[in-house]
Amino acid sequence: MGPLYSVICIMPELPEVETVMRGLQAVLQGRQLRRAQVHRPDLRWPFPVGLASELTGATVSGFRRRAKYILMRLDTGLSVVFHLGMSGRMLIRPTGANDRPAHEHMTLDTVDDITVGFVDPRRFGSVDLIDTQREDTHRLLAGLGIEPLDDAFDASCLANALASKRTPIKAALLDQGIVAGLGNIYVCEALFRSAIAPTRLSSTLSPPEIRRLVSEIKATLIEAIAVGGSSLRDYVQPDGELGYFQHAWKVYGREGERCAGCPGEPGCAGIARIVQSGRSTFYCPHAQR
DNA sequence: CAAGAATCCTGTCAGC
DNA sequence: TGCTGACAGGATTCTT
């Protein structure tokens, strides 16, 4: 039984994090941890003091996702706060079946011999502890904006948030304090599906455009979660990888390709790439206005 | 105060 | 073939 997998190198955004959380839930919920280990002092930040000892012997009671964070609740009243960063993944395998994979910085063994490893080559991820009752006051969670899949995220909510912004809509949607969980890929995709140019000033979007944008953000995320959920079935095995799944992006990474939104139209020169706030933006200048 | 740039990190890939 | 450099970007920190 060897690992594993081919890694698709995209970064985890809300749907990927949701998928990883569901995978962890399936494997860990209700199980007691026999041992927890960390294999280096830090990822993005130092591991919290006592992390391994706090986890050892605890039973995993539940999970929650907030933005791109995974909260793993323990029966001791503590929650583990995971962020996958750019390259974080969770590897599941039978305890003792394999050597520790490269870049596995934290390892959890359950009493029934399941091992979950947190792998993060670029080490942009993080792990922290907080009282479950105070999860939302954690410094990384306190400033987060609304969950885009929450019913409260609607056109008036987004309009309100955008009214005072003087940035391009692309930058506003990437701002985790406005809408929490979107990253570069899903912002590009949602703007394309909304036919809104990423360069538009946030405050200039019309009410119909904002309604469309809210709707497309939700649809884009829901579809991606569905893809992740179906890929998860393949991972419900004694060993497997949680973290990434394939998805057919309409614009992301498709510079120079034909635009799916205006096939054959003479005015369409295909997908363009520009840089906004130091990040690549992919869009169709013909279809997105 | 807000917006943008710099920063952290390493696997991947284009180019020589 | 093997090396070098550019590139990817989430979220904080720094600078303008």
Q: Characteristics of this structure?
A:
alpha+beta; N-terminal domain of MutM-like DNA repair proteins; Helicase, Ruva Protein, domain 3; five-stranded antiparallel beta sheet; four-stranded antiparallel beta sheet; 25% helix; DNA-binding
Mean pLDDT: 87
What is the CA–CA distance across the termini? Answer: 52 Å
Per DSSP, what share of the residues sits in E-state strands of 2 or more residues? 15-25%
Largest sheet: 5 strands, antiparallel
Elements, N to C (H/E)? HEHEEEEEEEHHHHEEE
Structural class call reads: alpha+beta
CATH fourth-tier homologous superfamily of the largest domain: MutM-like, N-terminal
Examine the secondary-structure arrangement and name the CATH architecture of the largest domain: Alpha-Beta Barrel
Question: What layout of secondary structure does this protein have?
Answer:
Blueprint: H1 14-28, E1 33-38, H2 51-55, E2 60-66, E3 69-74, E4 78-83, E5 89-94, E6 104-110, E7 114-119, E8 126-131, H3 155-163, H4 169-174, H5 184-194, H6 207-233, E9 240-242, E10 272-276, E11 279-283
Antiparallel strand pairs: 1-6, 2-3, 3-4, 4-8, 5-7, 5-9, 6-7, 10-11
This protein binds a DNA duplex (16 and 16 nucleotides) through loops.
Describe this structure in words.
This protein is 25% helix and 22% strand. With 289 residues, the chain is α+β, with helices and mostly antiparallel strands. It has 2 domains: 5-137, N-terminal domain of MutM-like DNA repair proteins (Alpha-Beta Barrel); 155-228 and 247-283, Helicase, Ruva Protein, domain 3, CATH 1.10.8.50. The strands form 3 sheets. The protein has a 5-stranded antiparallel beta sheet. It binds a DNA duplex (16 and 16 nucleotides) through loops.
